[in-house]
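User: Sequence recovery, please. Input:
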């Protein structure tokens, strides 16, 4: 733990090159909280709604292909709890793109988009039943990065995620979730 804190302290206090120039790398993670309304639909038309709270952590690695435009790969983990007690854990691998608007300040607004594959496992409350599903994950975000120096930034953002999953045991059951959330993140640039 001491080594990790030392590395973070050095990264936050070191002076590097310009933050979002072509050829630079960005490594970081996001933490998000969201409130979600989801619908579960079967092909015969049955539909149920749920209200949930979600926590998300998403490490990422991006490369700047041109000034201010990065492409990369993110890994996402979400823990979702439904009011009746069901718990869902979702893992996703998502290629992503970010654009940072160049300003002459420490603040840089940004937009991001991602699309990828996700897998979820739900434990139903009050029983031993477990549901597994997988499918498409799509998302977008708008936020602001505050550069504490040339090598590190803190971000705040609004986020939207959409999942279109099919039950692994019964493909007639689909899970479509739309999630709006807010999040914070940290990023190191080198």
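Assistant: Recovered sequence (190 residues):
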């Amino acid at each position: 733990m001491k080594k990790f804190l030392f590395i973070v302290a050095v990264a936050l206090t070191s002076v590097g090159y310009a933050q979002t120039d072509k050829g630079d790398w960005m490594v970081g993670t996001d933490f998000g909280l969201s409130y979600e309304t989801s619908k579960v639909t079967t092909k015969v038309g049955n539909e149920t709604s749920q209200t949930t709270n979600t926590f998300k952590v998403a490490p990422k690695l991006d490369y700047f292909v041109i000034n201010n435009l990065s492409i990369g790969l993110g890994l996402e983990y979400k823990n979702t709890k439904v009011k009746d007690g069901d718990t869902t854990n979702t893992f996703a691998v998502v290629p992503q793109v970010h654009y940072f608007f160049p300003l002459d300040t420490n603040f840089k607004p940004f937009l991001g988009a991602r699309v990828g594959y996700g897998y979820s496992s739900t434990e139903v409350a009050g029983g031993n039943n477990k549901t597994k599903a997988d499918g498409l994950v799509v998302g977008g975000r708008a936020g602001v990065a505050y550069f504490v120096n040339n090598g590190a930034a803190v971000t705040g953002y609004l986020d939207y995620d959409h999942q279109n999953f099919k039950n692994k045991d019964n493909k007639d059951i689909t899970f479509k979730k739309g999630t709006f959330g807010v999040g914070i993140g940290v990023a190191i640039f080198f």
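The chain has one helix and eight strands.
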